[in-house]
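Good morning C.,

I know you're traveling, so I'll keep this short. The sequence:
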Amino acid sequence: MGRIEDLDPAGVELVGLLRGLTAGSAARAAAETLLQQRAGPEMALRVIAAFDAFWRQIAVHGRRPLMRHGPGCSCLGADEACLATLVEAASEGAREDALLMACLVVRPDMSPMVVADAAVLGLSLQRLVLRAPRLDPAGERPVPARLMH
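The tokens, ready to paste straight into the viewer:
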């Protein structure tokens, strides 16, 4: 679909959380610890709570299981791009656009709740980007393009 570097900083954060927090308990613990070290425990808890509320709606009311790439992959999958666009639109007040994107992911009757959670998540991610910019340690660099996954 694309490359992570094509996203805005909040979108990069969203995809990182999606990949880290939904890839099993060990990956989740590592993602939570990294976020706490970077942003502090209070902000990390807010961001994680916002993500969990958003993800819970998608997991329960989703049209199908969503696909995601591995934590170190520099590719951007279609579902990841859709979620990033949904969260961006919701947090910027483009409610109708966000509702259309949400209908691609969840049942139409649940899309308003998903958009509400997406707006909260998007604003949390924007605060995170402003207060705790992402570091680029060697271990977090994306896999080179020729190593797709």
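Safe travels,
E.
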